[in-house]
Every structure is written in C-alpha cells, then in structure tokens.
Amino acid sequence: AYKGVLGSDFGTSTTILAQSNGTVVSTIPLDRSQMWLPSVAGRSQERWLVGEEAESLPFDQLVRSVKNAITKNEEVISGGQLSGVSADEVVAAILGRVAVMAKRNGVDVEDSVVRMGCPAFWVGSQRLRLAKLAEGAGLNVAVDHMIDEPIGAGIEWVWDRHLNHQEKVRGKVLVVDYGGGTLDVALLNVDFSDQPVVTVLSARGRAGAGDDLDEGIRAHLVERYLEGGVSSDQVEDPRFQSALVRESRAAKVRLSDLQSTEILLGSTFGELPRVVLARAQLEDAFAPQLSETMVEIRNCIREARLRDSKGFSTAESVRHLSDDVLAGDIKYVLLAGGMSLVPAVREELQRNFPDARVYGDHTINDVTTKVARGFAREDEY
User: Fold this and answer.
1) What is the DSSP string of 132-155?
2) Which residues pair with 43 in a beta bridge?
3) Tens of pLDDT along 175-222?
4) Model confidence, pTM
5) I need a surface site. Which of 16, 150, 208, 325 has the fewest CB within 10 A?
6) Cβ neighbours of residue 373 under 8 Å, at least 6 residues apart?
C-alpha cells in the first residue's frame, strides 16, 4: 500500500485526494465515475449517501456546501428535511467516504501524512474542528497540517513550471483561488537556486463565491419559468428545484466556452418554455461580487507591503497606495478553483494587472485538483 504524503482538499463543492510519486503527483479516484467526490450528502433509510449516490435525492433531502457550517461556526444544518442534523456528522460522512475509497485504491491513509487545505481566513478553532473530524474519519490529519488553500495551488503551479516547462519562476505570484464557498488570495514570493524557494507574504479571503453565483442563476431561472407560464406549485416542487440547482451549475460551466446556452431540465417535467441564458446575463449577476474580489486582492497586496523587510511602510502610507503601484508588485497571477473558469474573472485580473502574466487552467479537472496536488508535494512545507 502507498505510504507517503497525501494532499486533501475538502472543498465546498468537491473533495479531492492526491498522492505524489517522486516528481509525479496524481489524484486518487473517490467516486464511481469521477476522480473527485462531490461534497454533498443525504439520508436514505438512516444511512448517509455521499457524492454521486446522494445527488439523485430530491433537493430538500440533500446537504450541500456543508463546509460553510465550519466557516460560519454553525453546529447544525438549517433548511430542508435535514434541518437540525449535526453539521459535523455530515462532514464525517463525506470524509469517511474519502478514507474508504483511498484504501480501496491501495492508499494507506492512516500511516500517510495527510495535508489538508482550508480557507486562508479560518481561525485556529475552525482548523482544529476540521482536523479532528478528518482524524475521526480515518485520515491522518494534524492541525499543524491544515494549510491555506491558495498556498497549495501556488506551490503546485511553481513546481509544475519548473519540472514540466523548464521555467524558473522568480518574483511575486498572486494566487486567486475562487471556489464554491470562499474566495482565497495569497501573495507568494519565489526565489530560485537549484529549485524553487517559496515564501508566503500574505494570505486572506472571505466567504461568498461560486455558491452565491449559482443561487443567483437559480433565482433568475425561477423568474424566467414563472414568466413563461410554469405554475408556482411546479417551480417549488423539490424535484424541480433539484434539477434547477444542477442545471445552474452546469450552465455556468458551459458559459465559460459559449456565449449562450439553453437550459435543459429533462423530459420529467413535461413541456417547459424555452429558456436561454446568455454569458452577458451571467456576468451582470457576477459584477458586484467581482468588484468585491478586487478589493480583497488589493488588500492582500497591501498586507504584504506592511511586512516589507525594508521597514518603510506604515499603515497610513500603504492605505493610500494607488492601484497601479499595487499592480506593479505582481509578476504572475495564478487562477485556481472552479470559478476561475468564468471568463470575466480572467479578463478582470488581466485588466487590473496589465504587466503580469495571468495563468489558469481551462478544464474543471485541472482547476479543482490544483490545491490537493500542491499539498501532496513531499518536500515543500
């Protein structure tokens, strides 16, 4: 069985596990048809269903985005038929499935060191809560091995450029990890001698990301169907809402490549009015959140300036630095997380950092596994 370093990304939308074999880092299959496990759970006859198994259940019998309960310091689930259920029980069910699937794929999760990601803004009690739940589920995670998610993404990218592209990255790298539940930002400085040496200058973030956009799309589609003559009883049916949630997420991904996409809920619901969602509508809904994202990014760069080794920076002087001066610090911008596939994110970053090289993967598999693969790098922490 494999014993070594594992990287785990317990995400709001998906959960990933990765292992390293020398210079090669690979992800471990965690579900029936996918390398990752959807971070969703539901109850069926007193048994927890997790991942793809759970997604067939009606909308109100599912718990999605349970990681947000830790972010919000909530003990129980609110909403749906599982309202009042322990959030920790749901987390444990998802992580327990990770441990079972890893063992099934020949990985010794109890004797391997597991580095697990968390949002950059989580405090010690939140990190300890997840570490204890992971350990209880059979994963060898210590609170010392809870690491800010954008740092893992940054290290994976730096080493990938070195090993697979023969590029010696030097300078400041801004990592923007835009996931389902949180936006996380880190500013790294990379030196290079025989190999990359990465220093974390600052890391911060906030709650509210892809899930908020998905909810905005779902609410918009509800209005469109009601305007098209669909009855409120049908729209409010849990099965119809389940289909809307799934299709909202899928449409968002399709619009990363297309200018518009037709919403297809399936023949189960009879003949429905034709609804087309345009990329421009998605970007209009996303604009306020993207503006808040740029504020968070600039604050991350300002925070690093306060730790300037020259000692010349004061809070007052840093507060008044112009956007152009802040942008001048950055040589590379790295995008990670599912939301980085939204074209408006890349376009806005390139506009705000015109002299930086903006990097981002173009497939959902690459953007969702980057953090876990970074944590699986054996000698990096």
Assistant:
1) HHHHHTT----GGGEEEHHHHHHH
2) 48
3) 999 888 889 999 999 999 889 999 999 999 988 777 888 888 899 999
4) 0.88
5) 325
6) 7, 18, 25, 27, 152, 156
